[in-house]
Structures are given as C-alpha cells and as structure tokens.
Specification:
single chain, alpha+beta, Sulfite Reductase Hemoprotein, domain 2, Sulfite Reductase Hemoprotein, domain 1, Alpha-Beta Plaits, five-stranded antiparallel sheet, globular, binds siroheme, binds iron/sulfur cluster
Amino acid sequence: MMPMQTQQQLNRGAPLRSAGVRRGLAPRVLATAAPIAPATLAEGISEHSGLKHLPEAARTRALDRKANKFEKVKVEKCGSRAWTDVFELSRLLKEGNTKWEDMNLDDVDIRLKWAGLFHRGKRTPGKFMMRLKVPNGELDARQLRFLASTIAPYGADGCADITTRANIQLRGLTLEDADDVIRGLWDVGLTSFQTGMDSVRNLTGNPIAGVDPHELIDTRPLLRQMEAMLFDNGKGREEFANLPRKLNICISSTRDDFPHTHINDVGFEAVRRPDDGEVVFNVVVGGLFSIKRNDVSIPLGCSVTQSQLMPFTEALLRVFRDHGPRGDRQQTRLMYLVEAIGVERFRQLISEYMGGEELAAPVHMHSDAPWERRDILGVHPQRQPGLNWVGACVPAGRLQAADFDEIARVAEKYGDGTVRITCEENVIFVNVPDAKLPEMLAEPLFQRFKVNPGPLLRGMVSCTGNQFCGFGLAETKARAVKVVEMLEAQVELSRPVRIHFTGCPNSCGQAQVGDIGLMGAPARLDGKAVEGYKIFLGGKIGVNPELAKEFAQGIPALESILVPKLKEILINEFGAKDKTVAA
Ligand code: SRM
Ligand code: SF4
C-alpha cells in the first residue's frame, strides 16, 4: 500500500496535480528542461544517458533547444534504466527505506513506462497500470492463470483489459509488488518491458493464425521471432530504448487485415509471389492516429522475403532511431521522417543499414474476387478437419481475475489450452473438436462472453477512457456497453455495425476505424460544459481501407441524447429498423 502521508499529498494536489502533471510531466522535469551544453558530449556520455546508442546527428537533435521535453528526460537518464530501477524501487518501498515523496518524479511518472508501469496518478494515485506484450495475442492456460494471480490481491481495484493491440493491461498494481510480478511474467514467458513511451508496441498478427483456412502464412512464429529480436526475449533491448517516438508494427496474412496494417507505423502484408509461389511481404509505412493528424499508411515501394523480415525490421528501427525527428512531439512519428526525406531515401537508408541488401519491388497482392471481411466470433471450422475455433465477445475487453481462470479452464477442457485475444478486445478458443462443441457452448462463461452476441455488441470496441486514463475527456467502457445494449433493444439490423468508443483524440479506441466512431470531446448542455463526444462515420478495414470522417460534434454524453442520436444514424446510414414502432 502507498504510505498514507503520500496519499494525502497526492490528494492535496501538490506538486503532482500541477499543469505539468496533467500533460504527463512533473514540474521537476520542466525545471530540468534546459538544453545540455555540447561540452557534455566532449566529456563523454554517461553510461546512463539515452544518448549512448545515438549517432552524432541524432544526439544533436536530442540535445537541440527545440527537442521536446521527453528527449530531455531521456538525455538525463535512459528509459532503459527503468529495467533495473523498478526492482530497486520495489525493494526500497517493501523495506520501508524510501517514501513516495523522495522518489524522482520523472522515474515514477515517465521512465517506469519503459518497464511497462504506468502511474495512474490523475485517477488512482499510487496505483499502476502494467502493460504487457502478447505477440500475436496468443496466451496459454499457465499464463492466463498467472495473470489472474497478479490482480486478484487488489480486490475491486484489480482488473485487466484486452487492448486494441490484442494485448493485456493489468490494473491496480502497486510499485511495491512490481518486481514480483515482472519476475513471474518472465517465468511464464511474458514481459512488461518496452511497452510504453518511445518503444515498439505489441506486435499484432492474424488472431486465427495457424487455424485459418485463408491465411497465406502463420504469423505467430514470425512475430515471436521479431519479439525476441526486438526486446531481447522480454528483458529489454537498450539499443531500441531511445526511439524518437512509439512504433506500431504488424503482420497481416489475409485480405481481412485483422491487425490493421493501414494504421500501423509499419505494416507487413503477406502476398504470394506469382513466379515462384513464395510468400513475401509488401511493406506499408506511416499509419498513425494522434491529436494533430490521422493518416493511413503509404506503400514503401518494396517487398521483403521471410528471411529478410527480421534484418529489415531491425534496420528500419535503426533508421528511425538515428534519423527520426526529435523536435515537436506531435511530429515525431515515423510518417514525419518518411515525409521529410521521401519514401525513396527512407527505403534506400534501410537497405544501406542492411549492408546494401537489395529490396525487391512490391508484389501485386489482391485478387479481383470480392472479399467480405470475416467476423471471427462464433463457431468456425478450422483448416484442420474436425476442429473449430470459437470466438467469444468480451464486452469492452474488461476482465476480472476469475475470468482469466475460467478462460484457462475452458481452453484446457475443450481446446488445446491456448487462446488468442484480438484487436477487437475479444477472445478466441482454438482446436476444439466437433464432438466437444455442444458441452463447451453450454459453459456458463459463454452466458457473459457471448459466442453469438447482438449485431452491435459483436463489433464494439472501447479504449480505457477517463475511468483510469488521465487524457480521457469521457467515460467509455461502461457507457459503451450500456449504449449498445439500449440500441440493440430498439433497432433491428441485417448486418453487424462496428462502433468504436475512444475517450480523446489520441484515438486508442480507433474511432476512425469503426463504421461509427465516438470520440470524447467537449460538449455543452443548457449552456454548461458537459462530457461529450464527436461522432465519426464510414471507417473501412481490409481491401481499400478508409478512415471514418467526422459527422457530428458536441453531442452530450447523456444516454438520453446519445442513444436517440445513434439510433437515427443506424436507421439513416445502416438501414436499421426501429423495433419500437409498430409495423
Ligand atoms: Fe494509446 C497513450 C491506452 C492503443 C494512440 N494510450 C495512451 C496512454 C498510455 C496514455 C496514458 O498514459 O494514460 C493510455 C493508457 C490508458 C490506460 O490506463 O489504459 C493508452 N492505447 C491505450 C490502450 C490500452 C487502449 C485500449 O483500451 O485498448 C491501447 C493499448 C495498446 C497496447 O496494447 O499497446 C492503446 N493508442 C492505441 C492505438 C491503437 C492502435 O495501436 O491500433 C492508438 C492509435 C494508433 C497510433 O498509435 O497511431 C493509440 N495512445 C495513443 C496516443 C497518440 C499517439 C501520437 O502519436 O500522438 C497516445 C498519446 C501519446 O503517445 O503521447 C496514447
Ligand atoms: Fe486514454 Fe485518450 Fe487513449 Fe482513451 S484515447 S486510452 S482516453 S489516451
């Protein structure tokens, strides 16, 4: 537990509640923001500085007067130090040898994110969210049970979420317990390292990889290998700890584009080469959502073979690290580097970093046959005869400790003891024999996590929202479930409609990907400022992806206003029938 005195200090609001903190920075960071004189370089770079792995030009950018404040935090001490600091802080707190008020605020609020610990200082002071890495969203029963054990001790504060990157976030953790949880994660083959700040995010692939009759390649071994290479088997790779910004990478193996290559910084699209039938990957780069800009990725103009995939990814990361912008934080994502130097030069740099490796031209990938993006919830025959995958809807992705245990039990009893979690925040059981289906589907778990949910619940996605997230302008998860339930009671739809809720313009809930997107935004009601949403329409994923466009703004978040507004949209734009009106 957090010391009482500190809890009071946090509640009192000083100094953590300053404007700096609201933006994710403590006042002390702002105070140390003066540029470091070039003389520091001449004296040699501290082994603790984030400059250590940067070449001269990148150091200059990191030290520039115009470098953003996170660059200064990294110059002072590399985020990778959190990989040892977290154990030290946990130990000192457990022994009672340090107090919260004595700790470095940059470490607690910023650098610990490199170890996957996000202090939820604004909403739940003293409690941390821990973000994991689950490559390709695949978990086994042992891992699921361990996850249950990490949150169970925190009672009502402890819960978890499946994220929009097919990943797990644990909630309610204290820093005292972090060291034990990290060691336990390693023991079961998971990690929380390099999941936050300027690191590569969870690697996403096809959630039905290996069982999908339509996949071109099983994305799991590729992503596992990439994970091991990029993050040194979960222990953290210092060389990649000081990127200019986060980087999202995914591999898509079907025309459904389940991992959304169009909104990842780096997307690998599997395609079969017509001449020799080998599966290679067309590369697209620069997709991003942010407060300032939302864009789909653009073709890099090359394809990579399976044997080039790892060296290519490693080289791309080095190019981004060494050449990426480090000024205005809102202009540091990969797209800005690609635009600044041009697609050709960016591709050429990657090839140079690969030792002059030739990169082949992209391969024409789509057959002209129409393709409807598949809905993978429900029971589906696998490519292995007699076996099925069973997709179940986890409303808003929220899980309790008991849910993890129950998912593990069901996966072991009826499947092969593994599950996949998805970017739509759902869970897929695999390798279920035909004969076991009836008994499995009668399990109580599927009364809550429905295998055949309604047309809106099955496509509903929600970010964390202001329940835990300091950026949140609106509550999302609980409201999303409520609003969708109310709408399903009132309208009849002939096809599913995907509604994405996101609490602010960072768009972690991918509002622009949904058929309908709701984004937390200011609104007014009877002249007073209230929580509200913007509404987006028309997101498309897969072949010819499109981002949803803003349709309405300033909609108060009250169900009495939101539900009729969405009902009208469903009727006018999606052909819904009003069930409340007699025929
Ligand atoms: Fe996100 C920051 C949650 C997917 C764009 N995101 C945050 C933080 C860390 C802010 C904070 O410190 O509180 C949120 C943590 C809240 C919490 O307590 O959970 C947060 N993002 C999430 C998750 C959990 C949403 C969810 O409910 O699923 C997702 C975790 C993914 C994961 O497992 O790693 C999550 N975030 C995304 C996505 C979607 C995606 O990757 O497909 C995006 C948009 C795509 C993109 O990145 O281009 C996204 N998050 C952001 C941004 C805007 C980035 C930018 O360039 O400006 C921020 C703010 C930032 O990084 O400064 C942000
Ligand atoms: Fe937080 Fe905004 Fe991301 Fe939602 S979209 S998790 S509110 S940063």
